[in-house]
Amino acid sequence: MPAGLYIVATPIGNLGDLSPRAARVLAGAALIAAEDTRVTAKLLAHIGARVAMLPYHDHSDDGVRAQLIARALAEPVALVSDAGTPLISDPGYKLVRDARAAGVTIVTLPGPCAAVAALTLAGLPTDRFLFAGFLPAKAGARRNDLAELAGVRATLVFYESGPRLATSLAAMAEMLGDRPAAVTREISKLYEEAVTGSLTELAARYVEAAPRGEIVVVVAPPEAPPPAGPEALDAALRGALARLSVKAAVAEVSATLGLPRQAVYARALALKDGDAAP
Ligand code: SAM
Q1: Given this model, what pLDDT does residue 278 score?
Q2: Is any atom of ligand 1 closer than 6 Å to the C-beta of 250?
Q3: pLDDT digits over 222-233, tens only?
Q4: What residues in the chain have per-residue pLDDT under 50?
Q5: Residue 225 is assigned to a structural domain of this protein
Q6: Where in the sequence is the domain holding 50, given as residue range(s)?
Q7: In total, how many domains does the chain have?
Q8: Average pLDDT for the chain
Q9: How far, in Å, CA of 205 to CA of 198, rounded?
Q10: 83/121 same-domain check
C-alpha cells in the first residue's frame, strides 16, 4: 500500500458493516492511530490482523501528531475512531489539517456514520441538513445554540445520550417550535429503532424513562413562511424607495420577501407614480 494517511470509517454497531476495503487497509497499515486502542484491538481481532497502534486525540500533543505525519510520509498510516467516521464528532481534524500541510497523501474510506444513517431512517427531508453534533450540557449554552439554529432552513441532526434526551427534546421544542422529529437509536444493532412524533410528544415519551444506547435526534426544518401579501409588499417597497433607487429597492424587496422581481418592479413603478390602488 502506498504511503499516506488513510481515514477509515468503521462500524457503528454491526461488524458486518466493515467494508472489505476498510479491512484490507487496516490489515495492511504500518500503524493505526486510534481513539481508543482497546476498542480498535477488538476490530483487528475480528479481521484477524495484528497492527501496531498509537492512541490519538485532537488534544494529543503536537509531538504525537508530528510523529504520525512523519510516518505517513513514509508508509501507510490509518486513522480510526471508536465507531463510525473519524472527524465526525470524533478526533482527526487537526491531524488531517497538519498532514495536508505537510504534503501527506490523504485517502478516505467512506463508511458508517450515525448522522447519515439516522437521516435515512427518520423520514424527514434530506435535501438540506445541518449536522449540529452534541448540544452543550449546560442549559444556557444549549438554549443559545438552539436559538442560533432556529432560523436555519434545513433538517437538523443532533447526537444525544439517553440520560439527556428528554431535557434536550424539551429545549428543542421550546427554542425551535414544536416540529416533527425522529429519535433514532441503536442503529445497525439488534434493537435499532426510529420513533417519530412532534418534539413535545417525544419529550413527554422519554421523560418517563431514559432510553438505553446510542441516539441521534433528527428535527424537521421550520415551516416555510407564507408568501408576503400585498400590504407587506407595499410597506417594504415604500420603506426601500425612501432610501434607494427603484432598481435597488426592487432587488432588496424581492430578495427579502422572496417574490418575483418583475412583480415587485411593477408594483414599485405604480407606487412611485402615485397611481397605486390603496
Ligand atoms: N464518528 C461517529 C459517526 O460517524 O457517527 C460518531 C461519534 S460520536 C462520539 C458518538 C455518537 O454518535 C453517539 O453518542 C450517538 O449520538 C451517535 N451514534 C454512534 N453510533 C450510533 C448508533 N449505532 N446508533 C445511534 N447513534 C449512534
Answers
A1: 52
A2: no
A3: 997 777 788 889
A4: none
A5: no
A6: 4-112
A7: 3
A8: 95
A9: 11
A10: no
